[in-house]
Amino acid sequence: MIRVLLVDDQPLLRSGFRALLDLEDDIEVVAEAGDGLEGLALARLHLPDIALIDIQMPVVDGIEATRRIAADPALAGVHVVILTNYGFDEYVFDALRAGAAGFLVKDIVPEDFLHAVRVAARGDALLAPSITRRLIDRYVTQPRRTATGPGLEELTNREREAVVLVARGLSNDEIADHMVISPLTAKTHVNRAMTKLHARDRAQLVILAYESGLVSPGGS
């Protein structure tokens, strides 16, 4: 059972998301909150698998709530998925750095929304295509950096290759096909790279790959 916490200051939106999630046999909405501070308290109380958090909220906004969740060892199992609008893409980079596992735009179709919740629950990074494009565009405008940084020198060649493929958006199965290895071995390479680079999840691994210069937009 995937346990979900909804954090959004718009009751109507929360009700809509909850109605959709409650129809699924493998998903349970454990609590709702109208601001980030209340969301943090409920996250600590219920320890959900997924926290769906709006960016712009009163008291504590979504980015700060994400940062506090990511910094709390007791909440290490909580994957934050940010709910956003197309006009708020400037917050994407900050929220990913804060520890968000992914983003969903609020006009997402129900089937994609449910799929996204399940993907995030598995620990995979989740970025809407429109948000991914804008994120990459931001890196395009930045100078090329050398592929050095904390932990990079500890990666094996295969782990580096796996990180590059994660940053390109490939799943473990796709990484396995590309590297001609089993999906389990691919997952092992990714997990070891995350451990060495102190990445909370795959989204953080993508950010580190670009920030370090290990991956550049349009290439590797």
Structure report:
The protein has about 220 residues and is an alpha/beta fold. The chain is about 50% helix and about 15% strand. The chain has ten helices and five strands; from the N terminus they run E-H-E-H-E-H-E-H-E-H-H-H-H-H-H. It has a five-stranded parallel beta sheet, sandwiched between helices. Strand 1 (about 1-5), helix 1 and strand 2 form a beta-alpha-beta unit. Helix 2 (about 35-45) packs parallel to helix 3 and helix 7 crosses helix 10. The longest helix is centred in the last third of the chain and has 15 residues, at about 185-195. The termini are far apart.
Task: Outline the secondary-structure elements.
Blueprint: E1 2-7, H1 11-22, E2 27-33, H2 36-46, E3 50-54, H3 62-71, E4 79-84, H4 92-98, E5 102-105, H5 110-121, H6 129-140, H7 157-167, H8 172-179, H9 183-197, H10 202-212
Parallel strand pairs: 1-2, 1-3, 3-4, 4-5
Helix pairs in contact: 2-3, 3-4, 7-9, 7-10, 8-9, 9-10
